[in-house]
Amino acid sequence: WGDMYNETDLEPQSILYHPLYNKGTGFTARERRELGLEGLLPPHISTIEEQLARRYENFCQKRSMLGKFRYLSALQDRNETLYYRFVYEHIEECLPLIYTPTVGEASVHHSYIYSQNRGVYFSYQLRDRMEEMVANIPRGQVDVIVVTDGERILGLGDLGVGGMTIPVGKLALYTLFGGIHPGRTLPILLDVGTNNPALIDDPLYLGWRHERVRGKEYDDFVDSFVRAIKKRFPKVLLQWEDFANPNAFPLLERYKDEICSFNDDIQGTASVALAAIFAAVQKKGEKIEEQRIAIVGGGSAGMGIANLLYEVLLLSGLSEKHAREKFYILDIQGLVHTKLEKASPSQQKFAQDAEKIAEWNVVNPDNITLTDIAKHAKPTILIGVSTQPGAFTEEAVRAMYKNCENPAIFPLSNPTSKAEAQPEDLLKWTEGNAIVATGSPFPPVTYQDKTYQIAQCNNVYIFPGVGLGIIAVQSKKVTVEMFIEAAKIISEESPMLQDATKNLFPSFNDLRTISRKIAIAVAKIAVEQGHAKETDIEKAVDANIWFPKYTPLQRK
């Protein structure tokens, strides 16, 4: 797809300010002469390796995570090829900066660090001009859109237009690991107001200072957005991102058959958690249908994990009743059971039988805790998506370990400050026997002279490959089977299967290759299910993979 940007009719100065054309000092002598750039650049013609060395020297002078984030963002705004090559060459160092945890801090400070526009903002104030706004999008073709309304950014809550940093970050990962050309990606923020009083009162806040639109007005606005996008980009893949629980499931259900789309918080999180479960179960030498799963957090992420794992349990041969009984969902009101009045419809599907729970010896039957679940249900897998630091208490984890030799414990909430437990504590409380994966990056942990790598259970393992496969064959739909297959592929690459101290997930350095493998599998499923036409799948996938290197540029 780099061929799209091999010709230009822009004026010389505009070329230097266009991030998809600009090469800085990397323009060749021929390009400088033909494009009218002679005299506008220093005379030395740099190789991309020289530019990377120069940029890294400057990068290392930034002392804070946010400072490095801003440096990389500025590079992305000037020269996207160099930006992606820089991050690609320093992926382990840069990934925590361009996404979790630093992206959360950047979202909070969005209105203060905003410099150059990236993406589009559709404000409710201009709701009657949606098609005009979509027509203003400066892209001839778009393969993938990531959209948010900023209401539930990571575990930080309602950040209004500050949520734009999330689609920008997600799409950077699509490019880095899926190879989607940056010129065919589009981040979108639906500004429907904010219920964060600090933002409304902030004179520098860049969004619409109004309480959030709800109900029919909200639904109609989103509907006009989907219709306008589908009209202009009928084959686009739409990813819903960081919508609050009351909207996340309904939007997914409403539009999954109308436009090729998925919700990353629900389905992407579920798939990567499933990959961790597959690998952990294989490491333990057990079967998936033997597991008992406790999930702390009954929101969109938690219920997405439960639903996907439920489908896997059905495929393993369990009945619907027995599969549902495997889950223990813990929300703000305690364990979800059949007599709990406040459980959401998605939670009720997995409600435990209240009569069975009544046999448990618990302190407060009206609010059954994680410790109660650990003692009586004896879970083998514990997943946290609650954004409540400390939710995995020592008492609960020790009780779990008492009944399970190698408990799989995954505190997945982002950013780091919201993690349900610290990996160091989990290994200490289980005498080094827990299989640990976290949502944000954590350093290795040394326990009793052994050093354990801490896996980051990050959606980036899933969505770039799934997206690439969808785009390659122009699938009309994203299906459950695609996410299950992606999870299986990731789990098969687990280094922990050979060494208990190694990472549960493969290195990010290998993720481009793995994403290609996922893309091929996803594309095959799309064709088999009738959502895409027969084609040479590997050829179609490879034709959509872009690598950040300079290509010759000439006058149109």
Description:
The strands form four sheets. A seven-stranded mixed sheet has the order 9-8-7-10-11-12-15, with helices on both faces. It has a five-stranded parallel sheet with strand order 2-4-3-5-6, with helices on both faces. α20 links the parallel β10 and β11 (408-411). The two termini are 17 Å apart. α5 crosses α6, α19 (370-376) packs parallel to α20 and α22 (463-473) crosses α24 (511-528). The chain is of the alpha/beta class and 556 residues long.
CA gyration radius, whole angstroms: 24 Å
Cα end-to-end separation: 17 Å
Mean pLDDT: 96
Strand content: 5-15%
Number of helices: 25
Structural category is: alpha/beta
Helix fraction, binned, reads: 40-55%
From the spread of the alpha carbons, the general shape counts as globular
Count of β-strands: 16
**Uncertain regions: pLDDT < 50 for 5+ in a row?**
none
Strand order of the largest sheet: 9-8-7-10-11-12-15
**Which sheet architecture does the biggest sheet show?**
7 strands, mixed
List the helices and strands and how they pair.
Blueprint: E1 7-8, H1 12-16, H2 29-35, H3 48-60, H4 65-78, H5 80-89, H6 91-98, H7 102-108, H8 110-113, E2 120-123, H9 130-135, E3 144-148, H10 165-178, E4 185-191, H11 197-201, H12 215-232, E5 237-240, H13 245-255, E6 261-263, H14 264-284, E7 293-296, H15 300-315, H16 320-325, E8 327-331, E9 334-335, H17 345-348, H18 354-357, H19 370-376, E10 381-384, H20 394-402, E11 408-411, H21 423-429, E12 435-438, E13 445-447, E14 450-452, E15 455-456, H22 463-473, H23 480-492, H24 511-528, H25 537-543, E16 554-555
Parallel strand pairs: 1-16, 2-4, 3-4, 3-5, 5-6, 7-8, 7-10, 10-11, 11-12, 12-15
Antiparallel strand pairs: 8-9, 13-14
